[in-house]
Amino acid sequence: MEMPDTFQVHGFMSQALILTDHNDFFGPSSRDTGSLEYTELGLNASFRPRSNVLVAGQVLARQAGDMQQLNEPELDYGVVDYQFFTDSNANAGIQLGRFKNPLGLYNQTRDVAATRPSILLPQSIYFDRTRQPALSADGVMLYSEAFMNNGSVRFQFGMGSPRLDDQSEVSVLGAGTYGDFSGETSYIGQMRYEHGGGEFVLALTYADVNAEFDSRGVRPGSGDFSFQPWILSFQFNLENWSFTTEYAIRNIQTKGFVSPYNYDVTGESWYVQLSRRLGSEWQWLLRYDSLVTDIDDRSGKEFARASGVPAFTRYAKDWTTGLQWQPYGRFMVSTELHHIKGTGWLPYQDRAELMSQEKYWNLLLFQVSYFF
Amino acid sequence: MRQPLIACICLVAALLFTVKSRGDDPMVVLIANPSVIQTSLSLETVRAIFAMRQRTLTDGQAVHVFVLPDGDPLHEAFAKRILGVYPHQLRLAWDRAVFSGTGQAPNEVATASAMLKAVASTPGGIGYAYRSELTNQVRVLDIE
After folding, report:
1. Is residue A330, in this structure, part of any structural domain at all?
2. What distances in angstroms separate CA A329 from CA A114, B13, B84, B112, one per listed residue?
3. Average pLDDT over every residue of A153-175
C-alpha cells in the first residue's frame, strides 16, 4: 500500500447576458444588445501535506460592469488549514492566510454559480457595492464543530484585514477618485446549527469590518469607515423543496471626514426564497428580497429632501423567479427575471448616474456555467 | 417583517417533531481500510467526514473518502438511509468546501467493486458497500 495522492485541481467559469428596460446593471444592460460584462473565472488547487493539514488556494478573475473590470486574476483565498483537534464529539482547527468570510449562508462561495440558487444572490444582503471588504480577509480564522445527537454546532471566528477596491470607495464616499482606503483589524464570527445532516440550518453571523481612508485633497478629508452587519439565517431542506430566509441589520459609519461625508446609518435587508427541484436536471426559484438603506428613513424622503437625490435610491424591493438546468454533468444553463422597485443596491459610479436612475425596472439574465 | 420570522419559528417547531430513518439500512454498510482502528463512529462524525469537514480520525489518522457518482443507487441509498441527507445536498457541501478553501472533494470511483478495491488499498480509506458484496479486505464500521 502506498500513500494516497491528495493533490486536487478544480475550477469554474460562467458568462452572463444581462438585459434591463431601465438602469444599467453590470455594464450597458439597458442597450438593445444587453451587457456581457458579468464573467467569473476561477481555478483552485489543494493538497494535504500532513494528515491534519490542508493547503488550498484559488485565483479568481471577475468582471461585473465597468467598475470591476476583468483584470489580472487575483488571489481569492490562500490558506493553510491546520485541524489540530479531533475526538469523537468535536473537531477544531485554524486557518492562516487569506480566508473567505463566513457571512450568512452564501458569502464564502458567492462567485461560484454551482453554489448559488440563482444567477444573482439576493442583492439586499449580497450586493456588489461592498463586496470586496465583505468577501475575504488576511489573517486568522479559528473554527470548531461540536457533535450532538442528531445535529452539530459550528463556530467560526476570524480576525484580519479586509481588502478594499474602488467600488468600496464609491459606496462609502460617492466617488472613487478621492484617495485610498486601507483595511484595519476586523472581526467576523458565525455560529451555525445543522440538524439532521442539513435538514434545517440556523446561523447567526456578526462582523465588524474597519478601514481607514487617506484623502488626496481637503475634501472629503481622511477618516475612518466601519461596517457592522448582523445576519440571521435559516434554511429548511426537503428532498425537492428548499425554503431559505435571511434577515440582516447593518450599521455603516464614517467618522473624521469633512461634512457632509460623515454619517451613521443602519440598514435592513431580508428575503424569503423557495426553490423546487424538478427531476434531477431542473430547479425553479421564487424570491422576494427587500433592502432599506436607512431604517430611520425607510421611504428615503428625508434623504431626498437633504440631498436632491431621488428617494427610491434608498431602497429596493425585488421579486425574482428563475430556472436552472443542468443537462449533463457539471454544465449549467440558467435564466431569471427580476421586477424591482427602487435602486438601493444598484452599483453606480458617480452622482450623474445616480440622478438618471429609474424607480421601476426589470432585469432579465441568462447564464452558462461550467465546473470541474 | 415579522411574518417571515414567525414562519421560521413555526417550521423549527414542526421539525423538532419529525423523525427520519437513518443509520439503519441492513443492505448498505460503512466500510473502512483495515488500518482504521475504530470499530464504530458516531452518525455526526460520519456526516462530517462525508461532508469533507473532518479530515482525521480520533487517533490522528488521515481519512480518505471514496464515493460513487451522484446518481448511483448505492450512493443514493448510503446518502439517504445511512447519512440521512440527499445526494444533491452532499454535492453542494463538496462544492462549498472546494470553492471556499475549507475542504477537498471526495475521491470518486465508478463502480461498487472499484470502491471496494480503493478502500482496501488506501490506508485511512472510508466508503460504503452492499453487505452482500463485502470482501475480507475491508472492515465494516458500526454507526452509533
Report:
1. yes
2. 12, 37, 24, 20
3. 84
Q: B43–A150: do the CB atoms touch at under 8 Å?
A: yes
Residue A5 has what pLDDT?
87
pLDDT of residue A262: 87
d(CA B67, CA B65) in angstroms, rounded, equals: 7
Q: Cα–Cα–Cα angle for A134, A140, A142, nearest 5°?
A: 100
In a domain, A372, yes or no: no
Which CATH number does the domain housing residue A171 bear? 2.40.160.10
How close does chain A come to B133, measured CA to CA in Å? 22
Name the residue in chain A with its Cα closest to that of B144.
Answer: A149
pLDDT in the model for residue B19: 43
Of B56, B58, B100, the CB nearest to A51: B56
Q: Which of A62-76, A340-354, B66-80 has the lowest mean pLDDT?
A: A62-76
Contact criterion met (CB below 8 Å) for A11 and A43: yes
- The verdict on residue A17 lying in a domain is yes
- Prior bond of A327 cis (ω within 30°): no
Give the mean pLDDT of B68-82: 95
| pLDDT, greater one: A262 or B76 | B76
Q: Which letter does DSSP use for residue A294 in this model?
A: -
Strand partners, A158: A141, A188
- Residue type for position A90: A
Judge whether residue A238 has pLDDT over 60: yes
Q: What is the pLDDT of residue A37?
A: 93
Task: Assess if residue A173 is contained within a domain.
Answer: yes
More confident residue, A131 or A326: A326
Question: Do the Cβ atoms of A316 and A287 come closer than 8 Å?
Answer: no
Q: Is the confidence at residue B15, as pLDDT, over 60? A: no
Which domains does chain B show, CATH number per domain?
22-143 (3.40.190.10)
Cα–Cα distance between B52 and B20 in angstroms, integer?
Answer: 22
Round to whole Å and give the CA distance between A144 and A155. 5
Give the residue numbers spanning the domain of A256: 9-367
**How many angstroms separate the Cα of A128 from the Cα of each of A56, A165, A309, B10?**
25, 11, 20, 33
Domain count, chain A: 1
Contacts of B100 in chain A (CB under 8 A): 77, 100, 108-109
**Grid cell listed for A302:** 428625508
